[in-house]
Amino acid sequence: MNGPLVRLGEPADVVREGQAAVELRFTVQGGPPAVVEPPRALKFDVSLSLAPSDNGVALVPTAFEVVDPEGTVLVAATSERMRQADIDAFSHTAHGLDLSFLRLTVFGGRKAPNRMYLGFLGVAPTLLARHIDPRVIVRQMESTLDDVLSTDRMTYELAQEVTQLVPKRKFFKELHIEDQREPASVRIAPTPLWSKRDFAALDAAQRKELVSRAAAKRARVEWAVIGPGLGYLGSPHRLNRRYYFEGGVVESALADEHSLGLTFLGAFASAVEDFGGQVKYLGPLRDEPRVVQGAWDERVRALPVGIRGELTAEILTREKDRTIRFNDWDGQPREGTLPDAAALWCNYFGIGERINVLDLGKLGRGVNLRVDGVDRDLTMIGVGASQLLPILVASLAAETGSLILIEQPELHLHPSVQSRLADFFLFARPDVRFIVETHSEYLVTRIRRRIAEERATPRDVEVMFAERRGGATEIRSLALGNGGDFDEWPDGFFDAQEIDLRHIVRALASRVAKADS
């Protein structure tokens, strides 16, 4: 706040000076139920280190650790001693996703097997891969298929895997087996998928040959890969992708063997996904006033009104009948449609009394604000209204629990409106959290006033101050007291007016002294 304008341009900019990586820490509710009455999920801690990639264009994981409440390391992974040949061997299963990989050293509280890797999409674990000895693969495949075929317990998933490994028509042709078709009364087009009728048509020798071929073909791929999407790790098909061998024999054995570690990874992956869905962002340079705003086909969840607020009219149109709950500037609960809620706060800011959204078909949407009883489009009111309206709409439309990031909301706003904007952040949506980057002394002063008036508490607000020191940006927290005072006033923290006033007093004193002499 109020520090020099700094924009993070390179991944290295978020790594502290003198450090090789930046560490993120999470506390996650999840994992297997604790052995207590009544059973409840554990809380566990996750740490993830990120460092600039070799080409410097992204941050990639370099270390990962999951620790339970007793301090036991359940999962640990590192970027050290990784084999690029290993990653090349299985990474094609990621279907084009730009994953980063770490080598597992601990999994499920035990030493991890050699050549076992964890793939990340961003900070979320998304793929698990382990090298399996081909002889082990053959044994697993033969044992499972022999058991299933002898007991007629073939599942659809296993039939799919057998079909991938041993094409049915080619097998029937080479062994001179007649294709088993349905009776004419129910005949449908022949399918390449192995069916129970097909398996039943095989004699003992043919079954043995089928099992041998399937096991040998599967053993050519010496990797068991779960993902991408990690259906075993929480929500199935999170990325709408298929496994390399979905539900396969070797993959199922891997999941069963490492179920504890997968459970914790799944809880963390789900928590990251849920948190990511809560984050909303609005950039600092919002769209200039327009008579007509464009429409859109699909909204990005993290950018509910667009990065510049360009979709404000569209969301007001699409959600014009949606009823929301919010508070007014006195903290009183209110209920109304999204346009009515935005209009109520617009009236408090003094920029309009009512919002009308115009559907202009292919041209887009128009927004009119009623000012002094007259409907006016945004170009007739001033830049401030077009800057403020996206903030109101994005915040009022956000789901409960959202985290809303807003850069420089005070741009082009009158000082009195900047002050009232603090009331909006404090009172309008107590069920969401805001991270606001601002240079507005008026906004911060209003927050201090509300704390002094006991309408807000220091626990409701945390003020972070950014300043340049030794060529780097240092960010520190400034504590607020119950009287609205800060425990310290760093140099450069809202002192411009004080410095100017001091110079004015000195100049006036000098003039008076000259006049007296």
UniProtKB/TrEMBL annotation:
Limits of the DUF3696 domain: 457-502
Residue stretches making up the ATPase AAA-type core domain: 384-444
Domain of life of the source: Bacteria
Pfam families: AAA_21, DUF3696
Chain segments annotated as coiled-coil in the UniProt record: none
Record-level Gene Ontology MF annotations: ATP binding; ATP hydrolysis activity
InterPro entries per record: ATPase_AAA_core (IPR003959), Bact_Antivir_Def_Nuclease (IPR051396), DUF3696 (IPR022532)
Protein name: DUF3696 domain-containing protein
Organism whose genome encodes this protein: Microbacterium radiodurans
